[in-house]
Specification:
Blueprint: H1 6-13, H2 24-49, H3 55-71
Helix pairs in contact: 2-3
């Protein structure tokens, strides 16, 4: 991996798929945060499985990450009647 650029290494370790949904800006932010959440949960799970993190530490980290995802969640639109 020495010959790969830093961007290539990041893309390999944390690939991100593009967002093509409606309400582009809000959906893009939520999608990006959700993808980051899944990658980090994978790392946290691996650290926990190898004994590097306790169950309580892993839970706290995942809970903090989930709060970030929830904050970026698109709000339902009100129908105008």
């Amino acid at each position: 991996m020495k010959n790969l650029s830093k961007t290539s290494q990041t893309d390999f370790l944390c690939p991100k798929t593009p967002y093509h949904g409606q309400d582009y800006l809000q959906g893009f932010i939520f999608n990006n945060n959700l993808q980051e959440f899944t990658h980090r949960v994978g790392y946290i799970s691996a650290l926990h499985s190898n004994g590097k993190l306790s169950s309580q530490q892993a839970y706290r980290y995942i809970e903090q990450l989930w709060e970030k995802v929830e904050l970026s969640s698109p709000k339902p639109r009100r129908s105008s009647k």
